[in-house]
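$ fold --in a.seq
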Amino acid sequence: MPATLTQLLARPELGLRLLTPADVGDLDAPLSWAHSSDLPDPTPFLSPGQVLLVTGTPDDVDPYVTRLVSHGIAGLGFGTEVVRATPDPLIDACARLGLPLFEVPYRTPFIAVARFVADRVAADAYARNTWALRASRAISLAALRPDALGAVLGELARQIERPVALFGADGTLDRIAPSGALDAAARAALTEAAEPLLRSRRRAAGTASTDDGPFALQTLGAAGRLRGVLAVGSEGLDQAAQQVVTGVVALAGLALEQSRATDAARARLRTAVWRALLAGERALAETIAEPVLGSLPDGPARVTVLHGAAGASAADWLEADGDGFFARDGQELVIVGAAPETVARLAARFELRGGSSAPVALDALASGVTQAGVAARRSTPDEPVPSFDDVAAAGMLALLQTPDARAVAATALAPLAEADPALPGVLRTWLDADGVYDVATRQLGMHRHTLRARVADAERLLGSDLGGFAARADLYAALRAVE
């Protein structure tokens, strides 16, 4: 370990003597260096944790000592007999303000004190580097065990004496080393901290505070397809320990990436099963799926078709945390038989859009895909995955709410609006009254003959006889489309 003031004072060859009470400051704090300066304010050239050696002090002793304490100086050594003995005001100020003060006799050069601190710093750095090499070797050997990832995380926790947690791509806690090291509150806090890192879908790091201490979090995997998050207890970790952790991040990422070939094979198998189902080859699909993917949904099921840039990440999430059957077909993610809550959570997490069909039999999945496509065209930011059930419940006229339908309707109704902007509204009221003039005139507050004249004007402008059902239906559809 680095030198401390206690160790410095214990060296008989140095002959140092503590001038302030033993309870002033922290005599066992590690020292990063020893520096000498008689400047009135040497703090711009010092770092926290250093010892300052002086032969004189400014007349304004209190502000001088206050600056040193605020800067984090660990101790002050006064060289006696070079100029004078240690001044009493300095001893009093250091005792009051909490800065350990020791006497350096004339026979002890400052360089001897600095060398002792430097030698201990170098010895500590060598010891930590040696430990880091041993720890890295032990972790590398752990990677050769059957459960490579679990063994690596367990060895890391043992070497740094800190808890380690791994979260999967779906944000759920996969494992903890050592087992049972974290309580429920700490697990919840880490899960909450890992969630935004995974949602970002890019390589990132973060921190989390728990009842078990602070944790450093690091994503695993490539940007756009993260494989998980590693959380490591970070309290008191020095540079050597952080280097070991960095190596484990690389090993864990490699271990997870090595499973990608298996994942790719499963993905291709899922696609083959889906295409067999789509072609009506249900028996073949079930034969292929059963040994690897498990049973396919039984009975009528909803088909959901989703689109988005994070489709691959969404498929990884479903692999670990989904229900029903899913497959990627080109740029589409198809899900069969998943609960609506699962679909909604998936769409929100990975910013996907699409639609869901009504329940269809596995032998009629093609119709389910068609229904999902119809529903997807009704998708909005507030309702990213509408259901075909809702589309069907709204009726045929609801399908007119499309840009194409509105453009055609606006063109068809343009002669009416140009002749009289109020005429489309009159016609809508008349049609809502089933074309009954007496009912419509009461609602419009006009005479029956006036309304007949307005309808005749519309027939002339549209070049259509509104006496027949087909013409009235066409006009009504156009009026609904432009609403």
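$ fold --in b.seq
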Amino acid sequence: MAAILLFAVAMEMMKSGASALTPLLRGHLNIEHAADSLGLGWLMAYAVMSGSPAAAIAMALLSANALTQIQTYTMVTGSRLGASLIVLLIGFVYAVRGNERWSVLSTGILSLLLTASVQLPALAVGTLILKRGWLDSAHWSWLSPLTVGMNAILDPVMNPITRTLPEWALFILGGVLITGSFQLFDKALPELRFERAGLHQISRLIYRPGVMFLLGLAVTLLTLSVSVSIGILVPLSARGYIRRENIMPYILGANVSTMIDTLAAAMILGAPQAVTVVAVHMISAIIVSLPIVVLAYEPYRRLMSNMLEWTMQSKRNFAFFLGAFFLVPIALILS
């Protein structure tokens, strides 16, 4: 409850201060095109070690008209790409603790590959939907009473803060608090005891891609964090409880429901255009992911496995792969 309250206060602070960021985004950072905002969301996720705060910040910027809908959509997509690196870092931690290096790193590499394979095609699909205005008729009428209720709760807290701090300080402090709220929420989740939970049986119980797809979707909905739901796979994989062919559809499912926390941010802001961006992102992920799982899973699995094997073949390949994930977002902003 403390994490949820902190999240709501942080979103309101960023909403109040976002307009002060417009000159910075337009003048100094030159965030004028979709590619710029894609790189910004990507690098911001790296900086805060989570995609959720970066996506929430994108929602606040949209509500203040500092970004367009398409720029917000690409920034959110960038945050998803950046968030997948966190799983690789979890793998590094397990490798340092003495687990087999390539075994634990493979889950992180696979997460990066699968996320990119979904998010990049979904980027094209979502941009098309937004440009054509196919969801413009959705007015999200339920947002208005929700916003009124949230304001009634938050106004006694927010009014003294907004009167005291300048807009730019509100946005920065809100960004810090929202990162803290996600960390607090992650700590509130129960720690999994794999043997007690019977998860050592999972490789025998779950074989079908459709089941793992739904499981990845459900776990991400419950934890409100794709970093947590996919990060769980690292210790499961390291201990041999789950196999590569089970991991792939699970990550695809997680990439559909990964926007649940961003939807919460859009609802708190009471911004219909922000809810539309979230809806388009989820629809696009489903359009890309579902045919893969239902119709073309085996060819897809072979392709991803081959790419994983190439990446892990040598240190040079691994360095090239990892370097691309750092250099591409920088190149997008500088382009």
